[in-house]
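Example record for the data management plan.
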Amino acid sequence: METAMAKHPMFADSTPAEQDAATEALEKYLMTKLFERTFRQSADDVERDDILALRCAALQFVKPAHLEIPEGVVDDQALATAVVELNKINQYKAPRDKLVCILNCCRMLTNMLTSRSKSEGIGADDFTPLLIYLVIRAQTPQLASNLAYIERYRYHSKLTSETQYYYIQLCGAATFIEMVNATSLKVDRDEFIAHMLAAGAMSDEQLLQLQSTSSTDGQSSPLHPAKDSISKSTAQAAAQAAAAGVPGQQQQQPMVQVAVPAQAPVQWYDQQQYQQQQQQMQAV
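Corresponding structural encoding:
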């Protein structure tokens, strides 16, 4: 699409920035018109949405310590603001606009970690557990469908660098929540099972399977069960994204500068301009 537009006589004298803005505008126009025919049309998406909603509701007992998030990292006010940003994802129809909501949320989490990075034991490795904790707290409706929609309809050439990093991190967080069990968290097994059963998030078959593996898990329990499980979930999400054609990232740089097309409906998060951007988004 981008190559065809660049060769069209209408864009012969356009600058790369103008062509980029035209590409973004075309994607927004088409996907807004086709949204009802393309969003959440797969039975798999609906099933994943239901599983995530059920799991997130059952996991409301989870505390930062259960995910081995260092004490003092979570700022409740900042976390609540990031939750609001993520939950705005269902207010928009264009893939880029949905992706902006993800970036705004993740940049706020990065800022939360950066402001506490001088504390002992706090670093970049704490971002993914913090994102998982946020997703659990947010209980974002139709999150799996939104992630699948972005993967299918966002220009893959635009899903790079910071955007690709945060997108894969959120996919990993969703995968972790779908697959989470008692050994994935730093929590008592009986407590985990009780919460899952009370919420209807664990079947009798899953309970029997968990009980049958309890002795084996007890003999070879990892030093950091939560972080080990999180790493596996993120790696799985990255593999799924690569299989779907999402470009790979050779080096993770969580704060790479991303170009913003002119007249964007929502803006990338910037701490100093956040209040102004909130007003702009509300006016859209």
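Summary line stored alongside the record: The mean pLDDT is 79.
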